[in-house]
Design goal:
single chain, 308 residues, mainly alpha, 68% helix, elongated, disordered N terminus, CRADD, protease binding, death domain binding, CARD, DEATH-like_dom_sf
Length: 308
């Protein structure tokens, strides 16, 4: 942010000028996804000084009148802490995007995305194409960055599932940092997501696969399933080689799921048949086939595709 426009302790205070200044700062924040926590703290202190010094220069009634769109209530002069809280909670509202940006650099250095992506796909807030995009870079930090950018671009529901996935993956501290001071808006988010739902319909078999994503990748052995799908001409030898190239069983299963989620309903039905051919997986096949699909599930996936 330019020094000439950003207020500091030596800035001459003018009411109209100050309004322009803090609006400029907030716009800058929205356009800088990598702003650090230190920058936020400094900004809070600067804005507090601006309002604090304005109070000393103008009568209380004039101050309230001029800033009625920013704050409400009567303020006690010389109460710096009071102003600081006003700045934190009213001038810079905590939204999930800002919370991510506030801790952006720390998160991309700390987390590993594989299990987080598993949970988010199971909850239908990421697609297989999202996962391909996220995992395309080799470096973990770049994968983390791709995930955060998608979450910022989506909605509060995606963020809430991300928080749950962080906790399930052992990142409780990061989850608490991101969740701090945010109101519970899940119901409002769901209502907003469902608007325009009739305009597009996600194939039900794809939703059922995704809702069982973690159970599938955690429990199956892929070999016989892949052989069956090849015999049905639904997978190719190249697909098989791509799956086998993965070092661990869970990774092989993830690659198989990627193929299944890009196939049609016939492939889905033959996948269930392959599971049922082994008594060990019969219950899993029934679970997948009988999985309930709600309007929220479809809305979550629809929001993924409309943002792509």
């Amino acid at each position: 942010m330019g020094e000439s426009m950003c207020p500091n302790e030596d800035t001459e205070i003018g009411v109209g000028d100050d309004v322009k200044r803090w609006r400029f700062i907030l716009n800058e924040l929205k356009n800088h996804p990598k702003i650090s926590e230190e920058s936020f703290v400094a900004l809070e202190e600067v804005l507090t000084n601006v309002f604090f010094r304005s109070e000393k220069l103008f009568a209380s009634c004039s101050f309230v009148d001029k800033y009625q769109r920013i704050m409400t209530g009567i303020f006690e002069a010389n109460d710096y802490d009071f102003y600081l809280q006003k700045v934190k909670h009213e001038i810079i509202p905590d939204t999930f995007e800002i919370n991510i940006r506030r801790h952006y650099h720390m998160i991309i250095q700390e987390i590993s995305v594989s299990k987080i992506l598993d949970q988010m796909m199971t909850n239908c807030v990421l697609t297989s194409d999202d996962r391909r995009h996220i995992e395309q870079p080799v470096r973990q930090a770049e994968q983390n960055q791709a995930l955060l950018d998608i979450i910022i671009d989506r909605n509060r529901s995606t963020f809430d599932i991300f928080i749950d996935a962080l906790r399930d993956s052992g990142y409780d501290g990061i989850a608490e940092l991101l969740r701090c001071d945010l109101e519970d808006t899940k119901e409002d988010t769901r209502t907003a997501q469902m608007e325009g739902l009739s305009a597009w319909t996600v194939p039900l078999h794809k939703v059922r696969l995704q809702k069982n994503y973690v159970d599938i990748i955690s429990n199956i052995k892929h070999e016989a399933i892949v052989d069956h799908l090849i015999s049905c001409e639904l997978l190719t030898i190249d697909d098989q080689q791509t799956i086998e190239a993965c070092p661990a069983q869970t990774e092989k299963n993830r690659k198989l799921m990627d193929r299944l989620l890009h196939c049609g309903e016939k492939c889905f039905m033959e996948f269930l048949n392959a599971l049922r051919s082994d008594d060990i997986y019969a219950d899993l096949a029934n679970q997948i086939e009988q999985t309930g699909v709600t309007s929220i599930d479809i809305a979550n996936l629809q929001s993924c595709y409309t943002k792509m």
